[in-house]
Each structure stands twice: as C-alpha cells, then as structure tokens.
Amino acid sequence: MRLSDPAFRALFEDAPIGIVVVDAGLRVVDVNAAYCDMLGYTEAEMMRRSIPDVTHPDDRGRDAAFMVELLAGRVPRYRAEKRYLAKSGEVVWARITVTPLLEQSREIKHVFSMAQPLAEHRALAKLLPMCAVCHKVRPPSGGWVKVETYLRESEDAVVKDDRCPDCAR
What we know:
Layout: H1 6-14, E1 18-23, E2 28-31, H2 33-39, H3 43-47, H4 57-71, E3 78-85, E4 91-102, E5 108-117, H5 119-125, E6 136-137, E7 145-146, H6 147-154, H7 165-168
Antiparallel strand pairs: 1-2, 1-5, 3-4, 4-5, 6-7
C-alpha cells in the first residue's frame, strides 16, 4: 500500500522525521527517506523488513501489544520512546507516534508511525552533577565518585591524563 495522494506523497517523502506505514503483521509497506537514513537502510532493504526486525528486543512486546489495541480501535494513538537497531548494529533511540490509518470501509488495516531520533535528548539525559571543587560526579545510583572511576565502571571508558591548552601554559 503506497499512499498515492500527491500532497500526502510530497509531505511523506520530504518530511524531516522518519515515517513508516506498516500492515497488521508489522511489515513495512511504505517508508520515507528520513526513516531509512535514521536506521541506515535503503528503501528497498526496509521494504523487505518488519518493525520487529529493526526494534530492540526489549521493546518488541510493547509494540506488538499496542498494535493490537490500535487495530481494534481501542486507542487512538500510541506514543513512546523506543530503541531501534540500525543496520550498523547501533541502538538508535526515537520518540514515536503511531496512529491507525482508516480505510474507506472504516477498517483499520495499516498504521502510520512517525519517529523522531533522540540522540541529543538521550545524551543530555546522561549528564551528571559534578562537584566544582573536587570534580567528583554523582551518578544516578547515588553517592559521589571520582569521574575516572565512574567512566571506567559504567561506560567502559579509559581516562588518560592530559592537559587542556589553558593548563599547559
């Protein structure tokens, strides 16, 4: 099902956010370039996939449960933050809004989903309070720890001693 109204096609294809149309089995039936770009797939590759194929395993059950509610007409829309799996294997967070598409017969056979990537939002959510004096950080788990300890234990990062240009002078 490719939606054919010219005004809708222009809006769909040129939208700056990802848009996908899926059938009751969550198989992709139409997709725009922004959605493909967000996940790193070509349009042809996406058209051979279903939404569970590109959804993080922990979010698949919730999507499936809401699809049942949407198709039955019991909820008008579904909004959530979800994790996608990009072609590269990277996890891509997005805020989605999913709505049913009413056919002329008033049946719901497809849903329309818009996905706004949340990379910047998710990065800001990871900001930590840092002491301006000793530079310890307070992680979500509580307490204060050296930033190097926090990074090593929670982000699998290594901190290398270096000097910024100001301190080097």
